[in-house]
Every structure is written in structure tokens, then in C-alpha cells.
Specification:
Layout lengths: L1 E3 L4 H8 L12 E2 L5 E2 L8 E4 L15 E6 L5 E6 L19 E7 L6 E8 L6 E3 L5 E5 L5 E8 L2 E4 L4 E2 L14 E6 L5 E6 L4 E6 L2 E7 L2 H4 L12 E7 L3 E6 L4 E6 L7 E7 L3 E7 L5 E7 L3 E6 L4 E7 L15 E6 L5 E6 L4 E6 L7 E4 L2 E9 L2 E8 L15 H8 L5 H4 L3 E6 L3 H14 L9 H10 L2 E7 L4 H5 L20 H9 L1 E3 L2 E2 L5 H10 L4 H11 L22 H7 L31 H7 L4 E4 L22 H4 L28 H18 L5 E5 L18 H20 L7 E7 L16 E4 L7 E3 L3 E2 H12 L6 H5 L46 H7 L13 H13 L8
Parallel strand pairs: 1-25, 33-37, 33-38, 34-40, 35-41, 36-37
Antiparallel strand pairs: 2-3, 4-32, 5-6, 6-7, 7-8, 9-10, 10-11, 11-12, 11-13, 14-15, 15-16, 16-17, 18-19, 19-20, 20-21, 22-23, 23-24, 24-25, 26-27, 27-28, 28-29, 30-31, 31-32, 38-39
């Protein structure tokens, strides 16, 4: 097999260490990831937002554009959205008329796209394809488990009839819905094959009617292969001619070959192993080559369809010679040039389009795009690229006015939830001439920091010589203004502050005592992408495509923190899973093996080993985990036998945490309860401090401590214990736990060798006058500046880079590898430090066993627990963000700003 490496302009830039002036366009924007985008940099590039022209929401623009399709005659372009796209009425509820997915139809006969129509679809999941005669196109219905057929009637598209149901009552796993994903049509137009993402199967439609379904798992086709992984999470479909379907299996990293000559009797005829996670695919015109884009490996595999074997792998990422580069380019879609001489690949992770001449792969070049390009189509000399995201900007109207009912109604109708502010774009760009490609490639390099040189190596080496331990605390969902908006100095807006100093005295003290980071950003919009960024400095394409659907209540399971379909796939065997959760289905073929469909690989290609703990262990460091990536299903009240809310599980000998990532199995504290907002962080901190005292006594504190405190997420007020059952109490409880950790370190033998880093996984739940991604972050310990305001622009990626540099850990991805550490935070002369935690006076109104001399008189709550339980009685608190966050934000603002004793209405 041949393996071609790309010697690109980026690679030469890195090799030569060349410095150059910025050479981009006026649309240059800095993202919360720390990357820059310049989507209009290419000559002739034209950007369009996606306006569905909703009468009730004239300013709304759609987000999450995921797929493009061009008609066979090259005259029509379709753009499909698949994501959040939810709007609220003035009453703060979902507006059905403004909460659809969309197919944008463009006339491209003259090259530049001219929008001619917008077609509404209730739900989608990436799949859209033209029929061979261009008179029809098909759209997969996602969670609605159906297929829509649209017909051209005198130049206007409309549904040809009712959507065809695929007949699934549920998906596989626990509490999972079905989802119709990728689809393709046969050359004769009679057969349609649909990937059932959550059912590990395909459906075959013949002449518009359901003809058959085929389970793609080996054990369901051959009893002797029970328990063998295969065919799971099918996503994309390509049909060669009329006889063979190729289906990408994302979890099992294979292409399943299916004989579909008889639509009623499809059969698996082969499985082709792929390097990386296969997602989208295309066939060349004669069907002799199948090109497969693969995340994690950052490659495109080329399959000879006569032999059904991989004959070539092409790197889709910037590289130099045969040297392995950092992962995270994330190729997610691809197209062939009309003459099939070049391959075009959207690299979602580096916000670029790769152009690879197939005869000369060493001549690859890159073109800047918008934020996370999801799809590319080509015709003539034009390229059409859609990106799924945009910068959000500030969200100060996230329910900030409650003076009267009219203003309150206007507040709720502002639709300033972070996912509502993230928009899609269509980029139409002529194929750049050869003379411009080196310049565009340089811009992509600069946008991703690939050519940057940082002058902080001496500082970080000095810290590495002094610091031997890091405690990394991840909390949940708060913006800067929501907590520190009242802190001066610092760029805050006190009018947006809900949890000010009276509720969060320790976080205010940390900012004052050490550094106020008033320009810090969380890359993720929500926990579903915030956690991957917090532990891997990147997202996988699987998460990008599913999380927006999950948060928009359009199906999909929450698969980004270990469990897949709510099954603990960190445990390899069914027996292990049953011991951890008796409700696990008794099915040997249900995701066998300890593999995670959403996990990143390491830069060395080690499967599922791309997390911060994996890199630390590989570096020979010791790690202890408290609450990261544990199975949450057993905490739910829907569980007939939930794990008890034991305040001291170590003393009681009760296991309350089952790790859901295989790399955490041997390093997780089984007595530290994971995400469960019924349970106060006070007891989590006490369990951490129990082990910390032992480490202090024995001199064996782990190099890296992963510590999760989540009560600032808030919720489940009707079942929360010990009176920690109002928003103020829960945020104050979280604040005190953080302060207690810092105090414990300050009073320990490790005070001179330990740094504490604190970050929110995301900032989705609240307003901010600078940006909806701006959040709170803290650094405490020796050699940290004291009393300083640091306004350097940092993000979670910079924090991870700092942790890596201090501990001597290799970077996790292309992002942290090329972004600087938080060097502005440190001062090597500041070795001496101290900290004393102080509980908020609101905690005096709870039943927590607080030190009697610290609380003083209780501060009253705005409302009691019964009020909050009633106001949120329809919410699902069993895992992060299963609620409608935008609605909860409004409930919080209204309840905390209205007088005590008011009703919830």
C-alpha cells in the first residue's frame, strides 16, 4: 500500500520557521477556541448567511448547515441544516413555526449561488441526495425515523407525499431514539438505502416503499460471531451502480459492504477496516474508487471497489515529509473536481478546505473557510462550502429585564441562548489559481497558530522545575458577568450578575488574591462540546454533528463523556456492565468492547487515548480522577434502584462512581459521586480532602488531579438534599468547595509545588456583555501573580497547554500544540501564598455541617425550594443539559431578580 504525505506551504513554513505579516481579509475573526477565521480571504469569495425568511422572526438566520448537494446537471445547489435551530415565543416556549430544519435551494447555473427557495423539514440528520434525473431529492428525517421525498413541480420544490416511516420504535441502548442519517440512491433511481445511526442497521426503500432492513452487526448475521463488534453507528451511504452499498460504521471504524441487488434480501458481503473514524464518503463516476474521510487519523482512505480493499491513504492535514503531525484537522466531507483530478476536503478542525491534486498529492494547499466547514460541493470552476458555526458575540439580552411584564415578555423573545446565536454560512469561491494558493495556505497556517513562535519556554521550564502537582477543577456553565460582573477592577457588567460576591465569596477572593482573567473563553457552547474541549483541546466530528441535535431535542444520545447510548462502554464485557448497571440490556452484540465512538485518538494513533489523563499517564505521571467521565445513569430517579445519596460513601463502603472511559478505570475514586445536582459539592470536596490528607501524610500526591464540582450547574431542586435546593445555595456550595480545595493545598506540605487551575466546561447558562463564550477561570498557588488583572485573551486550550508545559505532557491536538501557555499569569518571584475559604452566608440557611464560626446570619433566598421545584417541574436533571437551557436561563433570571415570596408566574 502506498502512503503519501503532504509537503504543503504550511509544512515548509514550519520547517523554515518563517515569520510573515498577516495577510488576510477584513472578515478576520478570533474564535473562542483561540483560532482565527478569514473566510473571505480567497479571491472572489462570497459569503452568505442562511435566511429562512420566517415572518415571525425576520432577523433569524439558520445554524448548523451540514450538507451540500449539487444536481447532476450542475444547475442547483441544496444546503441542508441539521442542528439546534429552535426559536422561542414571547412566552419563552418553543415556537413550532420557527423551529424547523431547512433545505436552502440555490440556482448556481451562473456560478454565484442565488437563493430561490427554502424548504422546511421537521427534523434531519445530515442525509440529502438528488435522484439520478434531478426531478426528486431525498432528505433523511433524523429522529422522526423517516425519509422525505421532494419533487420539482414547475421550478418549485414540494413534498411528493407523506414521509416514508422506517418503523423503529426506539434506538439501541438505554433511553435512545432512532435517527435516520446518511442516504443514497441507486443509479437506476429505484432503491434508496438509509443508515439508521442509532439502530446499527440500514433500511432499503424500493420505489418509495420500505422493502427491508438489515442489521449490520456480525452477531446478528451469523450466530458464531456473537459479541464481535461491527457495523455500529452507521452514518454515511454510497451506492455503486445498482448492486452494492457502502456504509461507514463510525464506532467500529469500518466500511460495511452490502449486496443490495435484491432490495428485499440485502446481505453483508464484506467489511473494510479504516484508519480512523470513517464518516462521509464519495464514489468516483465509474464507481471504481471510494474515498472515505476519517476523523482521528486525519486521512482519506481510497478503496478499490473491485477488490474492496484500501489501496491508498492520503493525509488531509498539514504535514511535513513523513513526520507525524498533531491530530485534530478533522476531515469531515469531501468532493471530487469535475474532471476528478483533484480532491477537495473540508477540515472542520482547522477551518479550512484542503485541495489535493490526486496525481501530485505533495502539492496540497489550503483555503480558509468559516468556523467548522461541514461539507463541500464542486461544479465547473466553483467550490461551495458550508460551515456550521459562527462567533456569537455578546448575549446581554439573555433575560436581563424584569421590571414589568411587557419588558419581561420581550426579554424571553430575544432568543439570546448561545446556540441560537451561532449561525451557519455558505461560502462560494472560485477555485483559487495556483499563484494564490501559497498565500492562502499561509493564512490557514497563521489562523491556526502553526507558524507561531512563543517566547515563554524559559518561564515554563522554570515552572516545570518547581511545580510537581496540578489540580484541575472543571465546573459547569457560567459566564463571566454572571459571577464576576460585580468585581472591580475587571471588565464586568454588574447589571448582568446573578451570583455576585455575597454568593461566591471564594471565587471573588481567588480573582482578587491572584489574577482576574477577564478575557477568558470556553470554546464549547454547551457541556456536550465543552467537555471534549476541556479534556482533549478539540472535538471529534461525531460530537460536532450530534450535539446540536441533542440540545435541540432532535434525538441523538449524549455520547461525549464516555457512555455510548447510555451504556458504559468504558467497561468491556456485558458482565462488567451488568455489575455496574443491572439495567444494561442483555445483548452480546450491543457495542461489545471498550471503545467510545466519540473519543479522540492520541497523536500517536492510540485509539480512544486522546485525553489529558491519557497523555499524563503516557508521560509516566500519576493521575487521580474525581468525577470526570463516570456513568451517570445510576443516579437518576427513573432508575428503580438508584445509587443512594450517601454523604460519606467511603465510610459506608458504597461505590458511587463507575468510570466510563477505559483510561480512567484504575485511577478513579469510586467514592466520589459524579454529576448529580441533588448532591452537594460540600461532600464531594470532603471526599477529595479525605484522600488528599492521606497523600499529604504519605508524600504521594498524584501529579495530576482531575476534580469535578458541578453544583453551579444547579437543578433538581425538589430532590436536592440538606437544603442545598435553591440556585443561590447550590452556587454557593460549589463556590465553597472550590475555596476549600485551595485552602487545603495552601495549608499542606504541597503548597510550594502545586498549582490549582479552575475552569467552567462552558458558559451557556447566562448573559455576558462581551461574548456568550466568555467565562470565569482561576489559577492559584505559588508563582502566580497576585492582585493582577490579566486581560490577555485566553481560552481553555491555553489552560490545557499550560498544564501540559508545567507537567511535561505532550500536546493533545493541533490546537494546544500551537497555542501559547498562560504565561502572563505567572511571576517566579511570587512563591509565598495563602488562602482561607469562607462559606457564603446563604449556606447558613442550609443543613450542611459548616463551621459554626464562619457563616454568620443567613442571607435569605429569593424563593424557597418549593418555588424552584415548581418552576422547573418538567425538567430532566438526570444528566448535563437535558433541560431546555434557554428556558432555564429565563427562569433563573426571573426568579432571582423578583422579590422574595413572588410566584413563579
Amino acid at each position: 500500500m502506498k502512503h503519501f504525505a503532504l509537503i504543503s506551504g504550511i509544512a515548509m513554513l514550519l520547517a523554515l520557521g518563517t515569520a510573515f505579516a498577516r495577510d488576510d481579509d477584513a472578515s478576520s475573526q478570533m474564535l473562542p477556541t483561540g483560532q482565527r477565521i478569514t473566510p473571505a480571504a480567497a479571491p472572489g469569495a462570497v459569503l452568505q448567511d442562511l435566511d429562512p425568511q420566517l415572518p415571525a422572526h425576520p432577523d433569524f438566520r439558520a445554524g448548523n448547515a451540514v450538507t451540500t448537494a449539487i444536481s447532476h446537471n450542475g444547475k442547483t445547489l441544496l444546503v441542508l441544516t441539521s442542528g439546534f435551530n429552535r426559536l422561542a415565543t414571547p412566552q419563552g416556549r418553543i415556537d413550532p413555526a420557527g423551529s424547523a430544519e431547512y433545505v436552502f435551494v440555490y440556482d448556481i447555473a451562473a456560478g454565484a449561488p442565488r437563493k430561490t427557495q427554502v424548504v422546511l423539514v421537521p427534523d434531519t440528520d445530515s442525509g440529502i441526495v438528488f435522484a439520478p434525473d434531478d426531478r426528486l431529492f431525498y432528505v433523511s428525517g433524523g429522529v422522526d425515523d423517516n425519509v422525505h421525498t421532494f419533487i420539482d413541480r414547475d421550478g418549485s420544490w414540494s413534498e411528493a407525499g407523506p414521509a416514508v416511516p422506517l418503523g423503529h420504535k426506539a434506538g439501541l441502548g438505554l433511553d435512545v431514539k432512532p435517527s435516520a442519517a446518511g442516504l443514497d440512491v441507486s443509479q437506476d433511481g429505484t432503491k434508496l438505502v438509509v443508515a439508521n445511526r442509532q439502530n446499527d442497521s440500514i433500511s432499503i426503500l424500493l420505489n418509495g416503499s420500505l422493502a427491508a432492513e438489515l442489521d449490520l452487526r456480525p452477531g446478528k448475521n451469523n450466530a458464531t460471531q456473537r459479541g464481535i463488534a461491527g457495523g455500529e453507528y452507521p452514518y454515511w451511504v454510497c451506492i455503486r451502480g445498482d448492486d452494492t452499498a457502502y456504509v461507514s460504521s463510525m464506532r467500529d471504524r469500518e466500511i460495511v459492504v452490502v449486496d443490495v441487488r435484491d432490495a428485499a434480501k440485502p446481505a453483508v458481503t464484506g467489511r473494510i477496516e479504516i484508519d480512523g473514524v470513517p464518516n462521509r464518503m464519495i464514489l468516483n463516476r465509474e464507481g471504481s474508487r471510494l474515498f472515505v474521510a476519517a476523523d482521528n487519523s486525519d486521512t482519506v482512505s481510497v478503496i478499490d471497489t473491485a477488490a474492496n480493499k484500501v489501496v491508498r491513504r492520503i493525509s488531509a492535514a498539514p504535514g511535513s515529509g513523513g513526520k507525524k503531525t498533531f491530530s485534530g484537522a478533522t476531515p469531515d466531507a469531501l468532493a471530487l473536481s469535475p474532471d476528478e483530478s483533484s480532491l477537495y476536503i473540508t477540515d472542520g478542525g482547522i477551518n479550512a478546505l484542503a485541495i489535493i491534486p490526486l496525481a501530485k498529492p505533495q502539492a496540497a494547499s489550503f483555503v480558509p473557510t468559516g468556523w467548522y466547514p461541514n461539507s463541500v460541493s464542486a461544479t465547473g470552476n466553483m467550490l461551495y462550502v458550508v460551515s456550521g458555526r459562527s462567533n456569537t458575540g455578546p448575549n446581554p439580552l439573555g433575560c436581563t429585564t424584569t421590571a414589568d411584564k411587557a419588558k419581561e415578555a420581550a426579554c424571553r423573545s430575544n432568543n439570546h441562548y448561545v446556540m441560537q446565536l451561532s449561525k451557519a454560512e455558505l461560502l462560494a469561491v472560485p477555485l483559487p489559481p495556483q499563484k494564490d494558493r501559497a498565500r492562502l495556505t499561509r493564512i490557514v497556517a497563521d489562523n491556526n497558530g502553526l507558524a507561531s513562535r512563543h517566547d515563554d519556554r524559559k518561564l515554563m521550564a522554570a515552572l516545570r522545575a518547581r511545580i510537581k502537582h496540578i489540580i484541575y477543577i472543571v465546573k459547569e456553565n457560567r459566564t463571566y458577568d454572571q459571577v464576576l460582573g460585580d468585581l472591580k477592577p475587571g471588565n464586568g457588567d454588574p447589571s448582568l450578575t446573578l451570583f455576585g460576591e455575597a454568593i461566591t465569596p471564594n471565587q471573588h477572593a481567588l480573582a482578587r488574591r491572584f489574577v482576574t482573567l477577564d478575557n477568558f473563553y470556553d470554546p464549547g457552547e454547551v457541556s456536550g462540546n465543552g467537555w471534549p474541549w476541556s479534556v482533549s483541546a478539540r472535538e471529534t466530528d461525531f460530537g460536532v454533528k450530534t450535539i446540536a441535535l441533542y440540545y435541540g431535542e432532535r434525538g441523538q444520545s449524549y455520547d461525549v463523556e464516555g457512555p455510548n447510548r447510555n451504556i458504559n462502554t468504558g467497561l468491556e464485557t456485558k458482565a462488567e456492565r451488568l455489575r455496574a448497571n443491572p439495567h444494561t440490556p442483555d445483548d452480546d452484540d450491543l457495542m461489545p468492547g471498550a471503545h467510545d465512538v466519540d473519543a479522540p485518538d492520541s497523536n500517536q494513533g492510540e485509539r480512544d487515548r486522546g485525553h489529558i489523563w491519557d497523555a499524563a499517564l503516557k508521560a509516566g505521571l500519576s493521575v487521580r480522577n474525581y468525577g470526570f467521565f463516570v456513568d451517570l445513569t445510576r443516579y437518576s430517579l427513573a432508575d428503580p434502584n438508584p445509587i443512594a445519596l450517601e454523604r460519606d460513601p467511603a465510610k459506608a463502603g458504597v461505590t458511587v462512581a463507575y468510570p466510563s472511559a477505559s483510561g480512567l478505570r484504575d485511577i478513579t475514586d469510586p467514592y466520589f459521586r459524579g454529576f448529580d445536582v441533588k448532591f452537594p459539592d460540600f461532600y464531594r470536596e470532603r471526599e477529595w480532602e479525605r484522600e488528599f490528607a492521606s497523600y499529604s501524610a504519605h508524600g504521594n500526591l498524584p501529579n495530576l488531579t482531575l476534580l469535578r464540582f458541578m453544583e453551579d450547574h444547579m437543578g433538581d431542586f425538589g430532590h436536592a438534599i440538606d437544603g442545598v435546593s435553591t440556585p443561590e445555595a447550590q452556587v454557593a456550595d460549589n463556590d465553597y468547595a472550590v475555596g476549600k480545595v485551595v485552602e487545603a493545598v495552601a495549608k499542606s506540605p504541597y503548597r510550594d509545588s502545586t498549582l490549582v487551575f479552575v475552569v467552567e466546561d462552558d458558559a451557556q447558562d447566562g448573559p455576558d456583555h462581551v461574548d456568550a463564550h466568555r467565562s470565569i477561570a482561576f489559577v492559584a498557588g505559588p508563582f502566580v501573580k497576585q492582585g493582577a488583572v490579566i486581560s490577555a485573551r485566553y481560552s481553555t486550550v491555553n489552560m490545557l497547554r499550560t498544564i501540559e508545559d508545567v507537567l511535561g505532557i505532550a500536546p493533545l491536538s493541533v490546537n494546544d500544540a500551537h497555542q501559547p501557555p498562560m504565561s502572563e499569569v505567572f511571576d517566579l518571584k511570587r512563591k509565598s501564598w495563602s488562602f482561607k475559604a469562607s462559606p457564603s452566608r446563604v449556606l447558613a440557611g442550609t443543613k450542611l455541617p459548616l463551621p459554626q464560626d464562619q457563616t454568620g446570619d443567613a442571607l435569605p433566598f429569593a424563593h424557597d425550594a418549593a418555588y424552584w421545584a415548581k418552576a422547573t417541574q418538567a425538567y430532566d436533571w438526570s444528566a448535563e443539559d437535558r433541560i431546555v437551557a434557554s428556558d432555564f436561563n429565563e427562569v433563573l433570571w426571573r426568579g432571582l431578580k423578583s422579590p422574595a415570596g413572588g410566584s413563579e408566574n
